[in-house]
Amino acid sequence: MIELRDVTFGYDDADHPVLRDVDLRLEEGELVLVAGRTGTGKSTLLRLLNGLVPRFSGGELAGDVLVDGSSIVGVAPRDLAHVVGHVPQDPLAGFVTDTVEEELAYGMEQLGIDPGTMRRRVEETLDLLGIEDLRDRALRTLSGGQQQRVAIGSVLTMHPRVLVLDEPTSALDPTAAEDVLATLARLVDDLGLTVVVAEHRMERVIPFADRLVLVDDTRVRAGEPAELLRTSSVAPPVIELGRLAGWDPLPLSVRAARRRRDALRERLSDRRSRAVTIAGEDQLVARGVTVAHGDLVAVRDVSVRVRRGEIVTVMGRNGAGKSSLLWALQGAGKRRAGSLDVRGEDPATVKADRARTLVGLVPQTAGDLLYLETVALECAAADQQADAVPGTCRTLLDRLAPGIADAHHPRDLSEGQRLSLVLAIVLTARPHVIALDEPTRGLDYGAKVELRRILRDLADDGHGVLVATHDVEFVAQVADTVMVMAQGEVVSAGTPEQVLPESPAFAPQVWKILGDGWLTVDEVQAALA
Fold first, then answer.
1. Residue 333 resides in a domain
2. Which CATH number covers residue 286?
3. What SMART domains has UniProt attached to this entry (predicted)?
4. Final residue of a domain: which of 230, 262, 292?
5. N or C: the chain end with fewer CB closer than 10 Å?
6. What is the SS3 assignment for 43-99?
7. Which value, to the nearest 10 degrees, does the dihedral of the CA atoms of residues 113, 119, 124, 127 take?
8. Mean pLDDT for the chain?
9. Is 469 found in the same domain as 403?
10. pLDDT per residue over 50-93, tens digit each?
11. Do the strands 337-342 and 311-316 form a parallel or antiparallel pair, or are they unpaired?
12. What is the DSSP letter of 198?
């Protein structure tokens, strides 16, 4: 179907290739998961499959990329749209029309397909993806999961044989992510599509994957998921637990792991312990916060308390009001009602420079904070604005995403690398409270471990930390307090042990396998030791 032969590719300003000597063959009717550490070349590999690299990225390509035995090197992506469909990381940024039906038809219009065929394909795609009721909806009013399905649909109407998706669930809550992945699995089973998915949250995709492609230090390996994950440096919790327990073969799903858990549960009996964080005085106290966008009330009468040394996480479905709450607590988002106190000051009433030292916010679209030409300039500006020791921002960046060159343009970085850079910039100011909106989006497991250490160090240093996220596994590892929002209101709050098991959607894999209050592999490992 698709074959890469001895492919080596490097960007024009890079010191070494992103991919080297890659030989890879993707068969028809497979769901292929592409995984690897942040910045190793997963997105580059995906864009090679439809000609976006090197045609629009620049760089030097050696070797050959073939579809059905014919080379596509030098072929315009437009001429491949009926063969390889590409869905980018941020679907909303790729939309070019106003409504769902218009977006589904747009690609076919560019290919000159006749109106009768276009109408038929739009209808069959609406039915296939279960979005017929969204036909006339404005794209910007859709939830994240709905937007993702529309983005998939806009590609499917052109009847490609291969569907390539870059981080399709990174911005989705667990329920929406499961819906999207179930849709992809159905496309493979019912239509025989080859689906290629690059995803950092492997625990979501592994149960659906027929084959795994690991990208690591310019090398690409492909094979059976269970076999490659035996030694992989990136692995979901179910695999890490299987390695720890010595299970062979490794289970790829919670269901498979539950069938083998009894002996491990016996070894863990009455040996569970979890560190308790002793938090200090209040850093942030918000009471009765209400936020409205026109007639839509996004946050309704929410109270939040963040103490010194405490990490508070906010969870909830897409559209629950998490981002609106964070912007209101940072001071930039207007409150309709409620009070906010950060160490005696309200961020909404002080100048921007002062507000950054009260509550520092890493937004969901991290690139919005980047405006200079190189990574080095961004780091130097952050040090200067925060009156920090030169090199402070760069040191933080190296901890989160090592290996990013000073000369790189921030807009050329991967999603995870951009997020790491913005996080380093915000942390350089050392605000009393650090607020992060989906900070693990685009980060691999190793980077998330480092992020957890940084957040815990900040908390131990006396800062308060507030994180809005869909990443259940990260919450289980890092949170002291968990809040769950729905329709703008807080519906549950407490410790991770109290809140996470309340809903299957927000329960981590280890709890689903072992139960009894176990939340992370680290806890199991500590008990066995």
1. yes
2. 3.40.50.300
3. AAA
4. 230
5. C
6. HHHHHHCCCHHHHCCCCEEEEEEEECCEECCCCCHHHHCCCEEEECCCHHHHCCCCE
7. 140
8. 90
9. yes
10. 888 888 888 889 999 998 888 888 888 888 888 899 988 888 88
11. unpaired
12. E
Report the pLDDT value the prediction gives residue 403, as an integer from 0 to 100. 86
SS3 category, 340: strand
Helix (H, G, I), strand (E, B) or coil at 102: helix
Closest residue by Cα to residue 425 from 469, 394, 464 = 394
One domain, residues 306 and 211:
no
226 and 312 both lie in a single domain: no
149-173 tens-digit pLDDT: 899 999 999 989 899 999 888 878 8
- Give the pLDDT confidence score for residue 272 in this predicted structure: 59
Any domain includes 515: no
Residue 75's domain comprises 2-230
How many domains would you assign to the chain?
Answer: 2
Residue with tokens 């507030």: 466
Statement to judge: residues 193 and 58 lie in one domain: yes
DSSP labels, 104-168: HHHHHHHHT--HHHHHHHHHHHHHHHT-GGGTT-BGGGS-HHHHHHHHHHHHHTT--SEEEEEST
Q: What is the per-residue pLDDT across 477-503, written as a single tens digit (0 to 9) for each?
A: 999 999 999 999 999 999 999 999 988
Residues 357 and 363: beta-carbon distance below 8 Å: no
The whole-angstrom separation of Cα 467 and Cα 456 is 12
Instruction: Judge whether 101 lies within some domain.
Output: yes
Clarify whether residues 204 and 286 are in a common domain.
no
Q: Is 162 in contact with 83 (CB distance < 8 Å)?
A: yes
